[in-house]
Amino acid sequence: MKTLSELLCPEVPLQTGCNLPKGAGDHVMIGSNLGPVFEIVHVHGDLAWVRPLANGQEGLVPLDRLRSIDRSLAN
Fold first, then answer.
1. Sequence-distant (≥ 6) Cβ neighbours of residue 62 within 8 angstroms
2. pLDDT digits (tens, 9 = 90+) for 10-65
3. Which of 8, 13, 26, 61 is exposed most, by the fewest CB atoms within 10 A?
4. DSSP the chain
5. Using an 8 Å Cβ cutoff, are 12 and 24 in contact?
C-alpha cells in the first residue's frame, strides 16, 4: 500500500539509499531533504520509533526512509 506522499509526489523517492546501520540514540533525517532532525528511540524489525529533537511528536518510520547524519549537524 502506498502512502499519501508516494501518491501525491511519485517523483520524490522516499527511500534514502542510506544503508548504514541505525539504532537507538542515532540522529537521522527522513528522506533526502534538510528537514528536522530525529533521534531513534527504538528499532524493531524494519521500523524505527523516532522523536524529533525540536518537540515531542513521536512516530514510527520505516528504516529505509531514514538517513543517518553526523551528530554535529543536529545542533
1. 46, 47, 48
2. 555 555 667 778 899 999 888 766 778 899 999 999 899 999 998 878 889 888 88
3. 8
4. ---HHHHH-TTS-------S---TT-EEEETTS----EEEEEEETTEEEEEESSS---EEEEGGGEEE--GGGG-
5. no
Alpha-carbon distances of 14 from 18, 24, 62, rounded to whole Å: 11, 21, 10
61 torsion bin: left (phi>0), alpha (psi -120 to 50), beta (else): beta
Does 48 reside within a domain?
yes
- The pTM for the full model equals 0.71
In a domain, 52, yes or no: yes
Task: Identify the pLDDT of residue 43.
Answer: 95
The verdict on residue 37 lying in a domain is yes
- The answer for 11, left when phi > 0, alpha when psi is -120 to 50, beta otherwise, is alpha
